[in-house]
């Protein structure tokens, strides 16, 4: 059936873990007022959706249609007196240095919160840890708000770590010790742009929900949702600023590399120009024709060497003085 965990929540009490049999019994008997259950499912299990349709037939059809639909933009919407959410989060894998993003789908009703994912996610793992530590929640929306706050905390850590990396790269660039770090900057920018593209729609969808919330949502949960969304918007603003900062570093690094390339090409051109008199004189004296200058002079070779060297020095001095102007 793909059930990862299930908890029952009562007013002012911590969540109580349920096994499969106890969960099915609770769902069949119904829950008292103020009580609700949280089910977290693994969609990679073949019988997950079939069991979910059988056990919770009251969930809206729109929730089942979006399950496993692939990574999409984050959103929170109101459908048939239920809250549907698509939450993108960082995958929970220790052996990867590159941040990967995956989706989690959730549906909240007055007495049930269902969350489902294909890959382990960091935010949902932190939520499970909070429930195990005894955190109390008054409603399914309270759990969902806590999940969004954990998602914002993870994004804050990503932005903080990336900012530290960008600071180090910027210091190296100012000290002209950066080298060719374009691949590293491009990887950081690609990761942040992907997070921005997936997470940016979230505040707008939440604010639309706050304008027309379901009737069963209380004011305290709405206030918590509003505060978490405002905090998330600030984090997204920091992420956008960091992307622009990386873009400027890439442009500065490209300009430095272009300048170095131009200087190298200019130096090679000067060397070619300075060697031109020597090649021309060697070509003239290698024709083996009559009238070659200094052919009968015992010091002719050294005279030509002095003449060519003096001309080369004059041309070189002029060329390098001209180069210093640019």
TrEMBL record:
| Predominant subcellular localization, coarse grouping | membrane
A Pfam family matched by this chain, by name?
Answer: CorA
The protein's location, in the record's own words, is:
Cell membrane
Report the membrane topology from the UniProt record: Multi-pass membrane protein
InterPro entries attached to this UniProt entry = CorA_cytoplasmic_dom (IPR045861), CorA_TM1_TM2 (IPR045863), MgTranspt_CorA/ZnTranspt_ZntB (IPR002523)
Family listed: Belongs to the CorA metal ion transporter (MIT) (TC 1.A.35) family.
- The entry's protein name is Transporter
Record-linked Gene3D superfamilies: CorA soluble domain-like, Magnesium transport protein CorA, transmembrane region
Residue ranges crossing the lipid bilayer per the database entry: 265-287, 299-320
Q: Which lineage? A: Bacteria, Pseudomonadati, Pseudomonadota, Betaproteobacteria, Neisseriales
Write the record's keywords in alphabetical order, separated by commas.
Cell inner membrane, Cell membrane, Ion transport, Membrane, Transmembrane, Transmembrane helix, Transport, Zinc
